[in-house]
Amino acid sequence: MSNKPLRHILGLSGGKDSTALAVLLHKQVRQMEYFFCDTHNELPETYEYLDRIKAGLGIKIHYLSAKRGFDHWLDIHGGLLPSPNVYLILAIGC
């Protein structure tokens, strides 16, 4: 077994479900770490909402972003989101 301390990490989407979980866990786990995956295509209101969460809970949110943004991967996949269902439909020609 490792002697490393246990880390609690929660991803926030800016939606109601992850916000509710953040509020609930914040009361129970003081050492919680929070992150948000930034696609760079978010509405301004999303960032404003995350700022309200930070202020309301008194937390820090780490913003993560890929070197290549969402639009790059959308272009790579021909305007379709990568999904097993999409590729199955394309493979059988429906």
TrEMBL record:
Highest rank taxon of the organism: Bacteria
GO molecular function, one term: catalytic activity
InterPro entries referenced in this protein's UniProt entry, alphabetically: PAPS_reduct_dom, Rossmann-like_a/b/a_fold
Occurrences of domain Phosphoadenosine phosphosulphate reductase (ranges): 9-73
Protein known as: Phosphoadenosine phosphosulphate reductase domain-containing protein
Organism per entry: Limnospira indica PCC 8005
